[in-house]
Amino acid sequence: MLEQIDPFMQTVFTGVIVGTLTRYYLLRRDYRQYPSYPHGVVANLSLGLIAAVIGAVAVPALAEKEFTAVTFLALAATQFREVRNMEREMLLNLDNMQLVPRGPEYIEGIARVFESRNYLVMFTALLVGGATFWGNIFYGVLTGVLAVLLTGMLMKGKVVGQIANVRRGNVYFDGANLFVDNIHFMNLGSQEVKEIYLKRALGVVIEPFNDNGRATLANNGQRMAIAHDAAALLGVYRDVDTAEFMPIVRRHLDTGRVGLVIVPIEPDVKYLIEAVKRVPVLESALRLPLKNAIGRKAAD
User: How far from 147 is each of 29, 173, 267, CA to CA, in Å?
Assistant: First the structure.
């Protein structure tokens, strides 16, 4: 039955199906609440379908020596870049409504990921289509499975737990000054607010393993991401007019250690530590001074 189907149709059909399934596999909706359900999911799956069609159709077009088909790939890349800009703008507007904002660097990372996933889908559909056209559907599906596993590996980045040790910190006051261990956070004069902190607040200390981690955690965007994810997972005891309960991340200048203090809805320090460990390391925040000879010598 399959042999009676036109080879071009087999190529396009297999590439589109596997490419779209790849986009579905790469789609994640978790505590970050993006993409929203169902409209955000539909929008991203539709873009994945378009990317899969472009990648799959390119194979028979090139086989027929229609080299102008390459221009469609270039046009698609331009359109997906515009999608990235729209995603960024939308998320930045929504960030103003967050009790604990993500920050522009976190948002840029999200927009970049959604753009790159469309390119991965296009590339997967191209590989599957090629394997189907010059082999058969079995080879196409097998190539698709390998491509999906590869794309899943490519989309995995580092998390904070891989660059630093995260442990519980002691929250206390010295006069009106709030500390987690020996990391100073802010000055609070209200006795009522101080009592709430002493009763409900949790603190963690993030100790970088090396100078790479220290430089990465010094980035303000990375610290905003830590505060946002902790608040998203454990909740935060604040409203729009209670700035004193905003989760804060501060750096100890002498050691490079970073402290987080939060007044959560769910006061469980074990899961706060796990939440911080799973915060993604932002691409824009990642620093690798030890990769350079000067950085290595300076660290000695």
Answer: 22, 54, 42
